[in-house]
Write a structure and sequence with these properties.
With 329 residues, the chain is mainly alpha-helical. It has helices at residues 7-21, 25-30, 48-75, 100-114, 122-129, 132-137, 143-151, 157-165, 179-195, 205-215, 219-233, 244-260, 262-270, 276-285, 293-306, 309-328, and strands at residues 33-37, 43-47. Helix 12 crosses helix 14 (276-285) and helix 15 (293-306) runs antiparallel to helix 16 (309-328). The protein is globular, with a radius of gyration of 25 Å.
Length: 329
C-alpha cells in the first residue's frame, strides 16, 4: 500500500491520523464515567469534567458558608430574623420605625440566599424564614404526634395512593428506599392528607416531602415545611384534585416563554411541542425529579424566601440553556 509513497509523505499521512488514533486528553476524560454520592445520598454519574465543575461549585458554597458564619459571629445566630421584612422582592415599603441596619440585613440576606444557604444552616434558616416555625407555634406542641397517632391504620384513597408511590420515590436511595425511610415518609404524607382534605395527596408530593426529610433535622420539621409550602408559599390549589393551580401556572409560564424567549417559543411551536409536557412535572415536583438534589435545594433556598415566582425563573433558564446548547451542537 505504501510502496509508492516516500517516507516523508508517509510520515505526514500518519501525523494527520494521530488525532483520530489518539484522542485528546479532554476527549479521553469525557469518556471516563465517575459515580459518587452527593451530600444527600443520591448517586451522581458524570465524566471527569462534570466532577470538576461540581467541585468548583462546592468550593463556592464553602466560601458562602464562611460568609454566613462570619455574620453569625458578628451579628448573632439569628441576625436574619431581626426584624422580618415581608418579601424584599415585592418592593419594600419602609416604615418610619424601620432602622437602616434592618434594611441592610434584609438586602444582605437576599443576596446570600440567592448564592446558596450552607447545607448545615439550611434546616434552621428554612424553618425560620419560610414561616414554618410560626405556623408550628400556633398549635399545641403535641400536634404532629397526636395527628400521626389519630390517623394510624386509617385507609383512604389518599393512603392507598401513598402506599403505591412509596417504593417509586427515589428508588435506590440509601435511606429513603428502606423500610424506615418508607415509614417516615408515609407518616408525613398521610398526616398532611388528613390535615388538609382538599389536597389530600397528589403525586409529586412524595418527592417534595422526601427531599424535605433529607434536609430537615426531624420528621416533624419536614411536616411543617410541607405545610407552609402548600399553604403559604405555592400558588393555591396546585395539588387539589383538579390541579387548577397547576393549570394556571402552565398558562402563565407559556405566556412568559412567548414574552421573554420568543425565539424558543416559536421554535417549540414549529415542532408542535407543548411545554406543559415537561413543565408540569417541574412545578409539581419542584424540580426534585429533574435537577440534581444540590441544585434543587439551591432553587428551594430562594423559593422559601421569595416565593413561587422562582419556579418560573428556573423553568425559563432551563429552556434558555438547552436552546443555546442545541444551537451550539
Amino acid at each position: 500500500m505504501y510502496g509508492t509513497q516516500s517516507k516523508r509523505d508517509l510520515a505526514l499521512e500518519l501525523q494527520a491520523q494521530i488525532p483520530f488514533l489518539r484522542p485528546s486528553i479532554h476527549a479521553r476524560r469525557a469518556n471516563i464515567t465517575v459515580k459518587f454520592q452527593d451530600l444527600y445520598g443520591f448517586t451522581v454519574e458524570g465524566n471527569v469534567d462534570d466532577v470538576n465543575v461540581l467541585n468548583e461549585v462546592r468550593e463556592k458554597v464553602r466560601e458562602q458558608g464562611r460568609v454566613w458564619w462570619a455574620l453569625e459571629a458578628s451579628k448573632g445566630a439569628n441576625w436574619y430574623l431581626q426584624p422580618q421584612i415581608a418579601s424584599i422582592s415585592e418592593g419594600i415599603a419602609l416604615k418610619s420605625s424601620l432602622k437602616l441596619s434592618s434594611l441592610a440585613n434584609a438586602i444582605t440576606l437576599k443576596k446570600l440566599i440567592r448564592k446558596g444557604i450552607p447545607p448545615v444552616l439550611r434546616p434552621k434558616v428554612w424553618f425560620s424564614l419560610s414561616g414554618a416555625a410560626k405556623k408550628k407555634s400556633t398549635v399545641p406542641e403535641s400536634y404532629y404526634n397526636d395527628l400521626t397517632k389519630a390517623v394510624e391504620g386509617k385507609v383512604t384513597p389518599a393512603t392507598k395512593q401513598i402506599d403505591h408511590d412509596l417504593p417509586r420515590t427515589f428508588p435506590g436511595h440509601p435511606w429513603l428506599d428502606t423500610p424506615d425511610g418508607h415509614a417516615t415518609l408515609r407518616r408525613v404524607l398521610v398526616g398532611y392528607s388528613f390535615r388538609d382534605s382538599d389536597v389530600g395527596y397528589c403525586q409529586g408530593l412524595n418527592y417534595v416531602a422526601a427531599l424535605l426529610l433529607l434536609v430537615m433535622k426531624t420528621e416533624e420539621d419536614a411536616f411543617w415545611m410541607l405545610a407552609v409550602l402548600l399553604e403559604n408559599v405555592l400558588v393555591n390549589d396546585c395539588y387539589t384534585n383538579n390541579l387548577s393551580g397547576c393549570h394556571v401556572e402552565q398558562r402563565v409560564f407559556k405566556d412568559l416563554l412567548v414574552k421573554q424567549c420568543p425565539r424558543i417559543a416559536s421554535h417549540l411551536e414549529a415542532l408542535d411541542f407543548d411545554v406543559s409536557l415537561v413543565a408540569t412535572e417541574w412545578f409539581l415536583c419542584l424540580f426534585s425529579k429533574s435537577l440534581p438534589s444540590e441544585t434543587t435545594l439551591r432553587v428551594w433556598d430562594v423559593l422559601f424566601y421569595e416565593g413561587a415566582k422562582v419556579l418560573f425563573h428556573v423553568a425559563l433558564a432551563i429552556f434558555k440553556v438547552r436552546f443555546l446548547l442545541t444551537l451550539n451542537s
